Amino acid sequence: MRSDGIRNLRAKTVKPVVSIKRASETVEEDNTTATTGTTSTTQANGPVFPVKSVTLLKKTEEASAYLSLDKENIDPLKQVVDWDDLDTEDSGDPLMVSDYVAEIFDYMKQLEKQVAPSSNIMVKQPYLNWHMRSILVDWLIEVQWKLKLLPETLYLSINIVDRILSIRSVSLTRLQLVGLAATLLASKYEEIVAPSVQNFVFLADNSYNATELLTAERYIFQNLNYTLAYPSPMSFLRRISKAESYDIRSRTLAKYLMEIACLDPTFVPVGPSLLAAVGIFTARLMLRSGPWTANLVHYSGYQEIQVRRYSNRLLHFLQQEQRYLAIHRKYSSKKYMKASVFVYDWIKRHFPTAACLKSLYYSNEPYEEQASSTNSQI
Fold it and tell me: What helix, strand, coil percent values describe the chain, rounded to 5?
């Protein structure tokens, strides 16, 4: 199985060689003598091909040998494109749809571009700033945690908020209402049993009533053109996890890194597929799980150079002074293998002057007690 990108790469590699071969054949037909430097040869009804070092291409046989040699030069790409077809292991499971799982994820990568928010959503927000949005996202993470909603519900609600902020101006007094309505809408789409409206009203400390919440929900749904088909990062995370035998440590740590990345404005325009790849890449970096293998490249769809840029940005964000408490309290629990504690300890060891080390922001429990139990978790 080969992706379209690899096929295009092969096509681009062979095309210039064919042009040189045609030029060499024209040179031979015209009995052009060998010259030094660069010679331009014009074909009938064709472009002008610059030919360097014509002495190397005197004969058609030599040109054919050169073409064959170029095909051999493609072989080193096998270091990148040689991957194991892990989907064949699921051929007997109809729920894994191994026959067309690749087409499904190709469609999801196209879909993520259609529902992507603007990278400059604050241009339309005269009353808001990026910090206010991050506070709202941190609160939505707490709502998802308290109501025990699916991770897909959280990511869809964040996507709805960002898409609304991309097209409509929102006042500060209505920002929390937008987040509530987005979560209510996302829970109806993702959950088997969605929480009641009264649950959301209670979580907002009765700042809004049920009528205001339902009105905001209809307004958001209409402005989104009734489009909620958002490919969740969790789907891509499960896909990438297959390439590392579903390692529970890196997968749990990646969940934390993916959610905390949503607080960083840099990751607002980042698609869910890339977000999942960055989460796994950074988790493997912290756990020293080895290089970004060919299987990880294939099942994530991203080369290491593409992922490392955003991973470095995420590490920079983790070193900053953190003001968002909910996500750290959530992932300091044993259910999530104390992932936030592990990251705090990793930052402390590798970046001892990081600003985030000035305060214990993730839990009321003393750090020494948490760190002592972290090694047995992650």
Answer: 65, 5, 30
